[in-house]
Design goal:
The protein is mainly alpha-helical and 123 residues long. The chain has 6 helices and 3 strands; from the N terminus they run αβαβααβαα.
Length: 123
């Protein structure tokens, strides 16, 4: 019930607002993005790739410590592997989640939010 109320609060507000999200990182530009967000006192959501988390764990820890939301974007971003089976999607999610836990030092962390790599393709 709380989850439904939280969603309603996000999408039904008297205040105009925008949600800032970043995909496929962290990358070499993420520290610059974090500096701008800090200067402007803005929070964002970072949909991270597990492979990039493992390459830049200190940046992921910084994202977390500065109060931004870390969400899951899979591990590899290799579509043929990710979408080979339902289990492969779950494995990508879990592998990324484990990388984030390790980077931020919080074994209980789970974003509960997954942005599918590649979005939706209609053919």
């Amino acid at each position: 019930m709380n989850g439904r109320k939280n969603i309603e609060n996000i999408y039904h507000s008297e205040t105009k607002r925008a949600f800032l999200t970043f995909d496929d990182g962290p990358s070499t530009v993420t520290p610059t993005i974090l500096e701008v967000l800090k200067q402007e006192n803005v929070k964002a959501s970072f949909f991270v790739l597990g492979s990039r988390v493992e390459a830049m764990p200190d940046t992921v820890k910084r994202i977390y410590e500065e109060g931004h939301y870390i969400a899951n974007h899979g591990y590899s971003h290799t579509y043929s592997a990710i979408y080979s089976s339902p289990q492969a999607v779950l494995d990508e999610y879990n592998k990324c989640n484990e990388a984030v836990k390790k980077a931020i030092g919080k074994q209980e962390y789970n974003s509960h939010l997954f942005r599918f790599p590649g979005g939706l393709v209609r053919r």
